[in-house]
Amino acid sequence: MKCYLIPYKFYINYYADFSKEIDDFSFFSFFFFFFFFFFFFFFLLQKDSFGFILFKITFATKYQKVIKQTFVTFPDKEVHNS
């Protein structure tokens, strides 16, 4: 199974020397980038992780309203009014 993530003309011109390796590389590079971004958004951008703290330090001043709308924090315990 061959999966080309780049245009065929660009594939011929640029990868002519190692055309056998790019067949497997283009197929697995899709899953590599997919799981990288999945790991980045769902694990590094959690509430108390280092990646989310670094994200807030770099972008909090400019995109503070977007961060409040995007990342919703929930309380640790549910509060029931009795």
Features:
4 helices; 2 domains; 82 residues; mainly alpha; single chain
Describe the fold and architecture.
This protein has two domains: 1-44; 45-82, no CATH class. The protein is elongated. The longest helix is centred in the middle third of the chain and has 26 residues, at 19-44. Helices cover 61% and strands 0% of the residues. With 82 residues, it is mainly α.
**In percent terms, what proportion of residues is strand?**
under 5%
Helix content: 55-70%
- Poorly predicted regions are none
* Spatial shape: elongated
Ends: how far apart? 61 Å
Compute the number of strand runs.
Answer: 0
Transmembrane segments: 25-45
Keywords: Membrane, Transmembrane, Transmembrane helix
Short synopsis of the structure:
This protein is an all-alpha fold.
SSE map:
Elements: H1 8-14, H2 19-44, H3 50-59, H4 64-70
